[in-house]
Amino acid sequence: MSAIPWWSEAFAAEYVDLYPHRDLPAARGEARFLVERGLAGRVLDLCCGWGRHLIAFQELGLEVAGVDWSADLLARLAALPEGLRVAPRVVRGDARRLPFRDASFDGVVSLFSSFGYFGGEGDRALLAGLARVLVPGGVGFLDVMNPEFVRANLVPESRRERGGALLVERRRLVGEAVRKDVELWRGGAVVRTWYEEVRMYAPAELDECLASVGLRREARWGGFDGVEFGPGSPRQLLRVRADPRRG
Prior knowledge:
By secondary structure, the chain is an alpha/beta fold. It has two domains: 6-146 and 202-242, Vaccinia Virus protein VP39 (Rossmann fold, 3-Layer(aba) Sandwich); 150-197, no CATH class. The chain has helices spanning 6-10, 15-18, 24-36, 52-59, 71-79, 119-133, 147-153, 203-212, and strands at residues 42-46, 63-68, 90-92, 105-110, 134-145, 157-162, 165-174, 177-186, 189-199, 215-221, 235-242. The strands form two sheets. Strands 3-2-1-4-5-11-10 form a seven-stranded mixed sheet, with helices on both faces. Strands 6-7-8-9 form a four-stranded antiparallel sheet. Strand 1 (42-46), helix 4 and strand 2 form a beta-alpha-beta unit. Helix 3 packs across helix 4. The protein is globular, with a radius of gyration of 18 Å. The relative contact order is 0.14.
């Protein structure tokens, strides 16, 4: 078994091309949703990837910063015309050990299941860091999977062809996590393999984790369409608030 954590290998340069639906137009709609629900001022994007949400937030007038571990994705951001103004405000770093001062941001976001990578202790460390860098009363948004929906609707295998490449994804449940093993084929041969394994949190457990680091859950939606959360919701999108009396 590789000693390198999965998240250090999974998000390589071709990730953006293999998952083209995770694009800037989609991010612009999601950013508007969050701004309409209270995201404002100085905003940090945890696990920002190639910066699509950072670009969208900046277009809406927010002052942005980002952190991500993938040097490949951060290089992609720096090469984008839309990313030229954003890239200097992004750092490479571990989301469990944020390189920012206390109370540096009015808002923090963690989007598209970028929470759940590190196991119970590591995930709480990420939440504690999120709470630390928020100003008292600051707002956070957390976008994660809904375990009940995933267990009922897991697709064991899927295949997609794009640009001469075949992407084979096999999914299974491993305890409280969902694991996806991926093969990238070109010219009839496997050229790269990797996996993703994300810990899922039921609503009550997630609320408890948030409360343990001083964050209060204010709202939970079923997705970026703003529908009410329920068992059939694919996702859970939370708005949380830092204790206004802190400090």
